[in-house]
Amino acid sequence: MAEITADLIKRLRENTGAGMMDCKKALSEMKGEFDDAVDWLRKKGLAAAQKKAGRVAAEGLVAVVVDGSHGAVVEVNSETDFVARNDKFQGFVAAVAKLAAQSKDLQDLTAKPMPGEGKTVADRLTDLVATIGENMSLRRMATLSTGTGVVASYVHGALAPGLGKIGVLVALESTGNKEKLAALGKQLAMHVAAANPQALSIEAVDPAAVERERAVLTDKAKASGRPEAVIGKMVEGGLRKFFEDVALLEQTYVIDNESKIKDVIAKAAKEVGAPVKVAGFVRMALGEGIERAKE
Hints:
This protein is an alpha+beta fold. It is 48% helix and 18% strand. A hairpin with a 2-residue loop joins strand 1 (59-67) and strand 2.
């Protein structure tokens, strides 16, 4: 049996992230064999993660990372907001966001090796569950690129650079001044965070959503008892308002509360020195769509 020294326990802690008592027990169980102790802790961590997997994780962090004309955003969930302030958790989420920028999809991301570690993203997440003691999940990721122009970002409710409650990416295509283009992109990203558009343009709005809205507006108009010709105008007016709510280019700019986004972009093109096109956007809000446990 190999001697279990304080240095050996320390090395095991640094290697696995497990607590001191768990490291000491692992070395004792495995008769001082370091690699066997690592495996013992990993199995223990996996078992702990499986036990916690059924618990609702709707807190955590959204992270964004941008490199010129390419950006990525990820959501990593935990059970409590307290964990979002944990340095280890923040470091993990920031590292995962950088890896997401090089990944095809979530499956590809979870299989990627963590920088400077001999573990994948999935393995490292399992270790965090075991050491921090909460259920966690790498829920989703998205990337955005543009051939000519910039990708700008904004994080709302930031706890650290690039980490917060809402993450937004906006891709702008233009051959104009990159610095001015990036400033415009940042302002548009702030608008997207606040206004939560569902589509880029009227044409991009889900046709099924349009038909549902049309049906609701028609029923309301008919209930008013107005003539058929008036009902048609009421429905079309309601649809215009609907598009102003859900289509980014039709929305009212939250920064001046009067201009349409499409007009803001047209005006900015003169300052940038070339036409500007919004190629796309991504908005990811922490915990959206997760059914939370009721107190």
